[in-house]
From TrEMBL:
This is MEDS: MEthanogen/methylotroph, DcmR Sensory domain. It comes from the Bacteria. It comes from Geodermatophilus saharensis. Gene3D superfamilies: Histidine kinase-like ATPase, C-terminal domain. Residues 207-307 form the Histidine kinase/HSP90-like ATPase domain. Residues 17-160 form the MEDS domain.
Length: 311
């Protein structure tokens, strides 16, 4: 008889991050119900945040034990864009840490099935580093009947653990978070010839240039464009005597590029990582969160960041 180990050798001191892909209801129940019941036996808070179908299945199989869950919430209400969702997630984890030494979460990011929710794969990857010291087991549920195959491939790249039928095991396709971010960010294409780079030496000059460059179709986003570009220019001027500023449109998307000839970013994931509420820094996080998306190229010869703003 094979003994199932729902969390393997996890000792409750650090993050364990598993991507579980299922294609039928029975496989889901066989994985999640023992995971939940083990948490009850260990007196760990158990949280479930999932779509309606998953919650209905679990409710039917847990019966009276359903009331023992610390949370049983609809995932459909949690999506606030990548930055907003991770920021709220990190805040909730900080609160939990004050109340429990360790806990476990079964979560279904249902938004990955939608085009605008696919950016979450980058944030899932970054969570491996920025939440590494948080003592909980995160069992991420992905329905292969709903989530596209290419997104499921990204799930494998962003989760260190997978399920072998009896215990969590290392995911062979897992990649370093920075590599996942580079691979999944918007493609870096050549700048249009008409998009000349203007050197700026002060944040004030950058704000004026940006405010004047916002086209009529993007006037509603002008404050976001100026504030986000300002943050990037401030960062650039910390490592170089001037920053390069360029703007152009690509269809209905306004692109803002800020570049410098500094030493390059030491951490390419920092625009994705929620800032420490007391210490920061928060400049790149703020810039990323104000834009619809972002891409970066960095190395010893300098850094260029592009922010994308829809109309």
């Amino acid at each position: 008889m094979t003994l199932m180990r729902p969390t393997g050798s996890w000792d409750g001191t650090r993050l364990a991050h598993e991507g579980f892909v299922f294609a039928d209801d029975a496989r889901l129940v066989e994985r999640v119900v023992p995971f939940v019941l083990e948490g009850f036996r260990r007196d760990e808070p158990v949280l479930v945040v999932a779509g309606n179908r998953v919650r209905s299945l679990l409710a039917a199989h847990l019966g009276a034990d359903l009331g023992r869950l610390a949370a049983f919430d609809a995932a459909e209400t949690f999506w606030r864009g990548g930055h907003g969702t991770l920021h709220a997630y990190a805040r909730d984890l900080r609160d939990l840490r004050r109340r429990a030494p360790s806990w476990r979460l079964a979560a279904e990011p249902v938004w990955l099935a939608r085009e605008k929710g696919r950016e979450w794969s980058r944030f899932e990857a970054v969570a491996n580093s920025c939440l590494d010291d948080v003592p909980y087991y995160s069992l991420c549920l992905h329905d292969a009947r709903q989530v596209p195959a290419d997104v499921l491939a990204d799930v494998a790249r962003s989760h260190p653990l997978t399920w072998d039928g009896t215990a969590p095991v290392p995911q062979p396709a897992y990649e370093d978070p920075a590599a996942v971010v580079r691979a999944l960010q918007p493609p870096w294409t050549d700048r249009p010839g008409a998009a000349a780079v203007t050197p700026v030496t002060t944040p004030v000059a950058a704000r004026r240039r940006l405010a004047a460059a916002v086209p009529a179709g993007h006037r509603a986003r002008r404050d976001d464009v100026v504030a986000a570009g300002h943050e990037l220019v401030v960062n650039a001027l910390r490592v170089a005597p001037w920053a390069g500023l360029a703007t152009w449109t690509d269809g209905d998307v306004l692109v803002v590029e800020v570049s410098d000839d500094g030493p390059g970013l030491a951490d390419q994931t920092q625009g994705y990582v929620p800032p420490d509420p007391e210490k920061g820094p928060r400049g790149m996080w703020l810039a990323w969160s104000l834009a619809d998306d972002a891409a970066v190229r960095t190395g010893p010869a300098g850094t260029a960041v592009r922010l994308f703003f829809g109309a």
